[in-house]
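Example for tutorial group B:
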């Protein structure tokens, strides 16, 4: 695979991942408005970040005349499902979901940055620009009961394996 193809693949996976994040937060906000209103402001701030990340990757893909991921509808559906289940389970489940997603994403971003730094400055900048936001999402989630303790173990296991699987699949699609 050429370097350019790999760069496109990285941008495509991140673009799809942001789609999933938007879907998770949108669903969690809809439910939290009724059940856990105190979670809403932080979730709304995260959603605004994810929307702007999504636009960043969309424009990077467009600049390269590269297509988006075929699995976008799956990210939408998967995100909404995770968002729905965790929001119904309560604030701790919401923040466990965020923490599990964001820590998987954060690790993945580090690998991408390492590759992009040597191969594509513009793509590196795009990924670097979202890194701090994702880290702040992770930190907020950990500070609000989302840490991987025993009570949250199952949510962590399910959400982080779903995230890893979706990343893996999107690299193929
Ligand atoms: Fe994001
Ligand atoms: Fe995020």
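The residue assignment follows.
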């Amino acid at each position: 695979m050429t370097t350019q193809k790999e760069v496109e693949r990285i941008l495509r996976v991140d673009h799809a991942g942001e789609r999933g994040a938007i879907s998770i937060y949108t669903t969690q906000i809809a439910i939290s408005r009724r059940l856990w209103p105190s979670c809403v402001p932080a979730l709304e701030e995260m959603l605004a970040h994810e929307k702007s990340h999504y636009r960043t990757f969309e424009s990077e893909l467009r600049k390269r005349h590269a297509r988006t991921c075929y699995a976008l509808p799956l990210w939408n559906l998967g995100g909404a499902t995770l968002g729905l289940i965790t929001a119904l389970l309560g604030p701790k489940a919401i923040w466990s979901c965020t923490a599990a997603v964001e820590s998987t994403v954060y690790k993945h971003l580090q690998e991408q940055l390492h590759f992009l730094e040597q191969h594509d400055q513009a793509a590196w900048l795009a990924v670097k620009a979202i890194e701090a936001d994702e880290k702040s999402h992770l930190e907020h989630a950990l500070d609000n009961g989302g840490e991987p303790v025993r009570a949250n173990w199952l949510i962590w296991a399910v959400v982080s394996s779903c995230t890893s699987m979706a990343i893996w699949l999107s690299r193929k699609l």
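The pocket of fe (ii) ion (ligand 2) is lined by residues 21, 46, 50, 102, 134, 137 (CB under 6 Å). Compare this with the pattern of hydrophobic and polar residues in the output above.
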